[in-house]
Amino acid sequence: MRKTRIFVLFQIVIFSTLTEQKALDDYIRHYEELSYDTSDLHERHIRAKRSTSDKSLSLKFKAHGRDFHLDLKPCKSIFTPDHKLRHNNGTEESIDTSFIYDGVVVGAPDSSVHGAVIQGIFRGVVRIPGDTNYHIESAHRFFGRQQNKDFHSVIYKEEHINLDPYRHKRGPSNFPGTCANDEHLQWMQKVSESAVPQNRAMRTEYEDGYHNKYSAEANEYSHRQKRSTGSCNIGTKNTCYLYLRSDPLLFNKLKEGVGDIAARDEIIAFFASHVDAISKIYRNTVFETYNSAGSPPCYTNIQFEVKRTSIMTDETENCNNQLQKSSFCNPNIDVSNFLNLNSLQNHSDFCLAYIFTYRDFTQGTLGLAWVGSPSRNAGGICEKWKQYTEGSQQVYKSLNTGIVTIVNYGKRVAPRVSQLTFAHEVGHNFGSPHDSGQQCAPYGTSQPNANQGNYIMFASATQGNREHNDEFSVCSKDNMTRVIQAVTGQSNGKVNCFEVSGQASCGNGIVEDGEECDCGYEEDCTDTCCNPKITGQDRSIDCKLKADAQCSPTAGPCCTSSCNFVTSTANKLCRAATDCMQSQNCEYPLYVHYSITQSNYTLCNSKSQVCLSGFCSGSLCQAIGHLDSNGNVISSSREEKWEDCYINIAGQLTVKQKEELCLLACQIKTNGTCITSKSNDLSTYPEFNNVVTAAADGQEGVKLPAGSPCNDYQGYCDVFHRCRGVDNEGPLQRLKNLLFSEETFTTIKNWIIEHWWAVMLMAIGLILAMGLFIKFCAVHTPSSNPNAKPALRLTDTLRRRRRPPPQQNYMPGPSEPPPPYSAPGKGKGGPPPGHRKDRQGKNRQTDYEMRRKV
């Protein structure tokens, strides 16, 4: 009976633990199911597509404890008006992109939405400032045909994404994990320099030392001084036109269970989401150099648009024809050769040309791209098709290229991971090497901004939810600015390929910088307060308020349809409350509302983090000294600063030790002693004890969320809050640990000492067995000695039978030699040829006569 109760209790604990975190895969630690009427959404999408007036689409659902109301409009900022889908035979066709949408979240100011509606299911990203980014994907990707029929989509927060779950598999010697290793970089450097004349007399100021741009010394920040800010607009020619392709492996992966037509839409939507992601990063970045003198340039508002796409399939590449199949059909191409395949084609019509694939490259590599240079070295943005030296041959290549894969160690990566990888590789094209040094790779160092994470150009994948993860470091911006200056100024043989944007941002339905409102194009606009965008015209009043209009409903919820501000007496909600922000009502005459933030160090995210500046981004260790035992924020005058740390336990771990490794641990930055939240030393640190009491909810210690790293980054916490070591080599590693572990050797040693007599008998028996084996098998062993008997076959020995001795039918003769071969009177030359029969007969007769005479 007692055992039954324990079993039931154990099942309850397991069930309650599993319900806390629902992991989709190694990348997504927690998600929620999402369901709505897909048939209705598909029908409304078709109506919006055919409509000549109202092309908007509304989608409502509830998830993660809040209501979502998405107001969507067709996306007109990703693809150029003359965008074409190019086929392998050279033909092109226009393609429908009406299923790709941009929009906003109703009631959430400054929010944005980007996604696509395919087969009645919306997939995309919802960005809500002050809250988080929500990612929505089709459940088919994770569950296939076996998925639960009660839901068709999954939605998860950005902070629940682990961007680099396989960092431990690479080990210290394989640190990069995102793009190239040193061997690839050396090859790329050699190729980019092979187009540079060797006997040129003049060198530019940027060339000196730029060949060392991959070194840590080349990216140190300590000797740079920031320029004075001024006008940084790059001008009207600010758009980099892209050529995006997918290879057959990616098409085959995405068409599983959905068919060719849906797979093509999935790839187009995939392209759009990645361009939308990098556009938001690059458009808002101010690229500037950090020199000690002069007036260095700076640039901003760089945009990307897709001019051409290509979807490679088994049919277009003749993958089923061994004589005619394309090289892209080969599944076993390493990352450098795959980039080379892309570079062998002429891409001079584009700023950049990328191929997306589903190939699992070695060492966790997710992408590779040619690095831009402000010198005459080839590579990067706007590079034209030219001749390069490869050994003794001259080969034409386009080095304005790159590649990105969406699979890593056998698992498909999350969209956020491939989007940051795309931004990272494009950063290489713009001239940035990997970040290095404490200033430009601060995470884990003593820098004051270390807790904000590493930047985009860090060699390995970043956390993804830190402030710096969507930004370029000052080192990256310095290098990229020099390349942009060389390209736009067309110096050192560079060509400026930046173009005027094919589609103005006004008219996309999103209020952006420089706009008072945005109700879309004239045929879409139903807002009486805003001047719409008119196709084919560039008016100064576009996206501006009409005369006598105070505001526009497109700018936020605090404006009425009569173009007047909502007064405070209406008690209309402007911004919903979050863990770190209070709700805010509309308060005329304020037009822009900033929610009142919760106090810093307020517990948030189910008491696993704390608020900092209105965002749930701080760790519990940072709150030590700022919280009492009830979780209330208190003032503190202590100068000691705490940070996260991880304890390490070597060897075979017990269950208790695994659980201890998944407890919160903190350390004082000055002494570096790591203390767990279950330590007996907590009484020595009352401030730490207060945080543990407030966050643990009566449990012993604060448990880390599932998916958190543990054991000094040698494992991760599972849903049972136990540290699970990363299995780098699967069953082979487990077999290796079993056979060659220290515990195994100790067991064998003790057994030998105790049973020494058995070891002696086994040794003697082994020697005897080897001797007998050699003795009996010697006759079957071939020998190089010409005088030795030929070796017998084993079958001859097994089938050999004893034969009786031949019977003698004559009396034994004298022991003297036989007579000569020839008979008396014959020549000595032997018998003439051709008389074998007669010779044999005569021989027999002579032999018989001899016997008779005897």
Automatic annotation (TrEMBL):
GO CC, alphabetical: plasma membrane
EC number: 3.4.24.81
Ranges of biased composition (kind: Basic and acidic residues): 840-854
Gene Ontology process terms (BP): membrane protein ectodomain proteolysis; Notch signaling pathway
Full protein name: ADAM10 endopeptidase
Residues at the catalytic site: E425
Transmembrane spans: 755-774
Chain ranges of the Disintegrin domain: 503-591
Top-level enzyme category: hydrolase
Positions of region (Disordered): 783-854
Species: Pinctada imbricata (Atlantic pearl-oyster)
Pfam families cross-referenced by the UniProt entry: ADAM10_Cys-rich (PF21299), Disintegrin (PF00200), Reprolysin_2 (PF13574)
Gene Ontology molecular function, alphabetical: metal ion binding; metalloendopeptidase activity
Reaction equation(s) it catalyzes: Endopeptidase of broad specificity
Peptidase M12B domain residues: 238-485
Keyword Electron transport: no
Sequence positions that bind Zn(2+): H424, H428, H434
Alphabetic keyword roster: Cleavage on pair of basic residues, Membrane, Metal-binding, Signal, Transmembrane, Transmembrane helix, Zinc
Leader peptide range in chain numbering: 1-21
InterPro entries (alphabetical): ADAM10_Cys-rich, ADAM_Metalloproteinase, Disintegrin_dom, Disintegrin_dom_sf, MetalloPept_cat_dom_sf, Peptidase_M12B
